[in-house]
Design a protein that fits this description.
alpha/beta, Aspartate Aminotransferase, domain 2, 2 domains, 7-stranded mixed sheet, 5-stranded mixed sheet, 12 strands, binds pyridoxal-5'-phosphate
């Protein structure tokens, strides 16, 4: 098999553009004309692979999906309008009123809010466990469990769940394991090889490259028997391993309407081509900044799985092959110091995103998690004196110079 970067750059090399364009064009059209009524009928019935309407499928989006399939090892991919759309569509397809999802309170803030505030009132039970103790996952699963949902590195707590152990538990209970792999991407973490059934990505982050566009991806790894999923049993009898993606494309995703715009798919395919280079640089920069921050007397603690001081270091090294992503957090004395530090920075931008080419800083407790009371924030691992740094691909010496300005302001 060709290497990761080659697959990301060339996509499906046998699908050449009829006009010889080396870039897949942006098919910015809502509808696609057919030569006959019968052709439209067959397309609607799913018996002919053709395009009809861009909310359901679009050639530029398909090109992006194929590249993702080639680099992830999945058997099918659905690209959607955002990372949140990828998560919500997946849960809507798997779960329902009366069922439960087993997850952790250490998750991206909007994902917690989706589960707790948006889906719980519709009758979904959300069971929180400490994923550091996989036995808690086993204890929370019952006959009504529709999925176990975790992040491969949690944002912003930077916990690293043991995916192999958790997948052994979910496989034994015949419950699908859904993993949000946004902070690592398939370049750093091969979900399929670790027993993950459904991989979710916010392609807004590392994939888009330079934060050009919002997008999300759902990857089917083809290793779950959907006959075991109550909502998909009927489809599984006909569509086998493609039952979940079929339920999404022919029902949930089609009806919810969270489609990826063709222009954004184009930008994200472009970003994907340079992703491996950018990830290498951002991981190396993050290690350098983590080591620098650890030596600063005004820093109370640095949290990064790449540091030997992290309780997750050995597991992360083994699961992710020696690179640890581009996000770290560090604690100063109080929230006031966090604000003063952040406001003194010139190069590092105050913004809420991760894995941009630019280095970004944010105080999660007063922003992403501001909708929660203090006690809940602490349970979610979001301390009032914690800053999150998403490290870009600049020259790290310039980043350190800028952080020095932050310390001078304290
Ligand atoms: C781990 C994780 N998952 C999902 C999302 C949501 O992605 P999007 O902003 O593309 O909806 C984010 C956004 O920061 C994230 O960090």
């Amino acid at each position: 098999m060709r290497g990761f970067s080659t697959r990301a750059i060339h996509g499906n090399i046998s699908l050449r553009d009829p006009k010889g364009s080396l870039r897949t064009p942006i098919y910015d059209s809502v509808a696609f004309e057919h030569a006959s009524s019968d052709s439209l009928r067959l397309t609607f019935e799913g018996k002919k692979l053709a395009y009809a309407y861009s909310r359901i499928a679009n050639p530029t989006v398909s090109d992006f999906e194929q590249r993702l399939q080639l680099i992830s090892g999945g058997i099918g991919v659905l690209a959607v309008s955002s990372g949140m759309a990828a998560i919500s569509n997946t849960i809507l397809a798997l779960a329902g009123a009366g069922s439960n999802i087993v997850t952790s309170k250490h998750l991206f803030g909007n994902t917690l809010s989706l589960l707790d505030k948006t889906l719980r009132p519709w009758g979904l039970e959300v069971r929180y466990v400490d994923t550091d103790d996989p036995e808690q996952v086993a204890g929370a699963i019952d006959a009504k469990t529709s999925a176990v949902f975790i992040e491969s590195i949690t944002n912003p707590q930077l916990d690293v769940p043991d995916c192999r152990k958790i997948s052994e538990i979910t496989a034994a209970h015949q419950v699908p394991l859904v993993v949000d792999n946004t902070l690592l991407t398939p370049y750093l973490f091969n979900c399929g090889e670790h027993g993950v059934n459904i991989e979710i990505l916010s392609s807004t982050k590392y994939i888009s490259g330079g934060a050009t566009s919002v997008g999300g991806v759902i990857i089917e790894h083809g290793n779950f028997d959907w006959q075991q999923a109550p909502r998909l049993q009927e489809r599984a009898a006909k569509q086998g391993q493609m039952a979940l993606l079929a339920a999404l494309r022919q029902e949930v995703y089609r009806n919810v309407g969270a489609c990826l715009a063709p222009h954004n798919a184009y930008l994200q395919s472009l970003g994907l081509e340079t992703m491996s280079l950018r990830i290498e640089k951002s991981c190396a920069n993050t290690m350098a900044l983590a080591a620098y921050l650890e030596k600063q007397s005004l820093v109370q603690g640095v949290n990064y799985p790449g540091l030997a001081s992290s309780p997750y270091h050995d597991l992360a090294a083994q699961q992710f092959g020696g690179r640890f992503g581009g996000v770290l957090t560090f604690d100063l004395a109080r929230r006031e110091e966090c604000f003063a530090f952040t406001d003194a920075l010139q190069l590092v931008r105050r913004a809420t995103n991760i894995n941009d080419n630019k280095t970004l800083i944010i105080h999660p407790a007063s922003t992403i998690f501001s909708e929660y009371p203090e006690v809940d924030k602490l349970a979610m691992g979001v301390r009032p004196n914690m800053l999150r740094l998403s490290v870009g691909i600049e020259d790290y010496e310039d980043l350190i110079d800028d952080l020095e300005e932050g310390f001078k302001a304290l």
